[in-house]
Amino acid sequence: MTTDAPVLICRRSTGFTLIELLVTLALAAILGSLAAPAVRDFIVRSKLTNLSAEFTGSVLKARNEAVNRNTCVTMCMSSSAGDAAPACTTTGTDWQVGWIAFLNPTCDSGANSPTDSINMLLARPSMGSDFYLQTQNNRKKITFNARGVPGLGSAGQFNIIYQDVNNALNDKYSVNICMDGLGRTRAIPYSQTCAGYN
């Protein structure tokens, strides 16, 4: 009886060599550096679009509530910090600090806070300092009457811009929001003004 000699099979260990890993990492770094500007542009554009939509949505809510409830509604820049009750601020021109909207049954243009917490419609906190939501004509407060008219006397303009050193991203993605005498808003290119844009 014959027995076969055992066959030794040499198995090569599988895996990546150091050179293969270094090449892969180098390619990933190159692709990452090419994609970084596009990702940055996407983030800036997305945040500016969201801020614009949130602000115009707040204006629309305040205007609609004034009409639906047949009373005045005030929307203003917020001065609240920390746990303090939200109130209108009397300084600054950057609505990015946050804003509030509240029922103003007496239509008092000097009212800076709701008479009761139940009259608060919305309170939007600050989103940080990377973006500006600046008002023109030093407008810190808008009071809509029962017809939804803000009584601005002239068109209001709000600039939504990114704090960019070379302004390249501002030219691409920043917008101006125009509010007419009836409280309607529209977004126009950053390089244009509300008065001269058709």
Automatic annotation (TrEMBL):
Query: Which residues lie in coiled coils?
Result: none
Q: Which UniProt keywords apply?
A: Cell inner membrane, Cell membrane, Membrane, Methylation, Transmembrane, Transmembrane helix
GO cellular-component terms in the record? plasma membrane; type II protein secretion system complex
Q: Which family does it belong to?
A: Belongs to the GSP H family.
Protein topology in the membrane: Single-pass membrane protein
Known PROSITE patterns for this protein?
PROKAR_NTER_METHYL (PS00409)
Its taxonomic placement starts with: Bacteria, Pseudomonadati, Pseudomonadota, Betaproteobacteria, Burkholderiales
One Pfam family for this entry, by name?
A: N_methyl
Q: What is this protein called?
A: Type II secretion system protein H
- Is the keyword Oxidoreductase assigned to this protein? no
InterPro entries in the record: N_methyl_site, Pilin-like, T2SS_GspH
Keyword DNA repair assigned to the entry: answer is no
What domain of life is recorded for the organism?
A: Bacteria
Organism, by scientific name, is Acidovorax delafieldii
Q: Where is the General secretion pathway GspH domain?
A: 54-183
What is the annotated localization of this protein? Cell inner membrane
Q: Which GO terms describe its biological process?
A: protein secretion by the type II secretion system
